[in-house]
């Protein structure tokens, strides 16, 4: 299983539309509206890189209100305290 975080810049005033378009997809585990350079952060779980490619192509790129994305793939690195 792979976990990725997708940082999304949305066309102004369309944050709710993008939020609604993303919720309900089985790969989407969490969605946050955030302040700063990005408007929305999505935590995605997929089985492999091909599934992540499919998520980008079949879900994200179909949402017209999305201007730009940046995807961060989580590593297995953990901090021991």
UniProtKB/TrEMBL annotation:
Source taxon at top rank: Archaea
InterPro entries tied to this protein: Dimeric_a/b-barrel, Tscrpt_reg_AsnC/Lrp_C
SUPFAM superfamilies: Dimeric alpha+beta barrel
Residue ranges annotated for the Transcription regulator AsnC/Lrp ligand binding domain, each copy included: 6-74
Name the UniProt record assigns to this protein: AsnC family transcriptional regulator
Provenance organism: Palaeococcus pacificus DY20341
């Amino acid at each position: 299983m792979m976990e990725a975080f997708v940082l999304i810049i949305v066309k102004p005033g369309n944050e709710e539309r993008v939020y609604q378009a993303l919720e309900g997809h089985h790969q989407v585990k969490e969605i946050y509206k955030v302040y700063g350079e990005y408007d929305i952060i999505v935590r995605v779980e997929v089985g492999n890189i091909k599934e992540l490619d499919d998520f980008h192509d079949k879900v994200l790129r179909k949402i017209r209100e999305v201007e730009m994305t940046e995807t961060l793939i989580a590593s297995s690195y953990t901090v021991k305290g």
